[in-house]
Amino acid sequence: MTISLTYDEKIAILDLGDDENRFSPSFLDDIDAQLDDIVASAHGLVTTATGKFYTNGLDLDWLGAHSEQMQWYIGRVQGLLARMLTFPLPTAAAVVGHAFGAGAMLAVAHDFRVMRADRGYFCFPEVDINIPFTPGMAALIQAKLAPQTAVASMTTGRRFGGTDAASIGIVDATAAEEAVTAAAVDLLRPLSGKNQQTLGAIKQTMFTQAVTALTGGTT
What we know:
The chain is an alpha/beta fold. Helix content is about 45%, strand content about 15%. It has 11 helices and 9 strands. The protein has helices at about 25-40, 60-65, 70-85, 100-110, 125-130, 135-145, 145-155, 160-170, 180-190, 195-205, 210-215, and strands at about 5-10, 10-15, 45-50, 55, 90-95, 100, 110-115, 120-125, 175. The strands form 2 sheets. The chain has a 6-stranded mixed β-sheet, with helices on both faces. It is globular.
C-alpha cells in the first residue's frame, strides 16, 4: 500500500492506495505528512483510491497484535478524523470502492462525498461486529449526517450502495467508476482559493463538539 499525491491544477488528489487501505500506524504517519504538504500548496483536497476499497478503516490485525496500545491507536485514528473534519481547505472524498467503519468515517469527515454508482458499499458495521462507537466517532457521524440518516446507518449495519447512499444523504452525488474522482474535483473547483485561516476557523466553530469528543479538547 502506497499513498500518493498528484494535482489537478491546484486541487490535490491524495490516493490512499490499491489494497484495503487500512489505518496502520505507518499509514497514519504517511497521510499526516501528505496533509502537511497539501496545506502548504493546494486550494482543495480530494481523497480517492485505486482498487476495490476506498478504505476499510481500522487495522484490526495490527491492533490484535498490539492490544496494549489500543488507547493510543484509537487516539491517532480520531486525530486524523478531527483533522479532516476541520481541514482548512475544501475537501471531497471520492469513494471509488468499499468504505467501512472508520474508513466510512473518514469519508464523512470531508466536506463532500461522491460515490461510485454501480459497485461498492458504504457501511458502519459496528453493531454487527460488536464494537460500539466511541463518543468521538459517534459525535463525528451525528455532526455530519441528518438524525434519521445517522440512526439508519449507525444502528443497522446496513450496506449502502451509491444510489441508496445518495438518496439518504450520506453522499452528495454518484458517478460512474471512471468519473468518481473527476466529479469530486469538479465539486471543489468553484471553491478554490478560500482563505485557509477563515475556512479553518469556520469548521472549528461548526464542529467544536465533535472535535472535542474526538480529541479530548487537545487540538
